[in-house]
Known about the structure:
One of its GO terms (molecular function) is ATP hydrolysis activity. The protein is an alpha/beta fold.
Amino acid sequence: MLEIQNLSAHYRSVQAxxxxxxxxxxxxxxxxxxxxxAGKSTLMNSIFGVPRASGGRILFEGQDITKxxxxxxxxxxxxxxxxxxxIFQRMTVLENLLMGCTADRRTVxxxxxxxVEMFPILKSRASQRAGTLSGGEQQMLAIGRAxxxxxxxxxxDEPSLGLAPLFIRKIFSVVKELNEQMGMTILLVEQNAHHAxxxxxxxYVLQHGEIALEGTGSELLANPAVRAAYLEGDxxxxxxx
Length: 241
């Protein structure tokens, strides 16, 4: 469904990605893990052309979208939950959800019912300003807003960042549910390697803008270098590997 081929990206003179290859097959959960500054969010953002790829190609369902303008990419069956959530803070919860609607307007009521079934807290907060929600509630709202567009590919950028353990478990439970019960294809960028690799079919380790390792989720969880670097906190072990 998504294929990233030999991708490079720059922020002015600084090269953030160096020849990255990533593929996401339909129906998979694929996770990208790495330390701060590894290039994870850059890769995610480059899919939408910010920053624009300086080399390589990005294919979605066989279509080369590398040079498409961001608004044209946004019309494809791709939705993103950005790092930091970026909800509309002064709008209500309901208004935020409605901002995600790009599909058939006749399904809006049914879609809203589906979102509050998945995230019951949003129903009682419907008329509340989104900026007054807790961090975990805001993340649920951001995911719900993305799902309102009926995406076939969901991009999640650091969904557990800054959340309490209870909400982290909820978020990864939702990821698993979306994939297993709805068949949604998901590309998940995460620092929380333990949770991310447990729900992923396959994963990539990004380090210094390059793919350092790849494998199934269980293979990477069992890899001594990955465990030392991301589960036990010694990134030097991965460099050595």
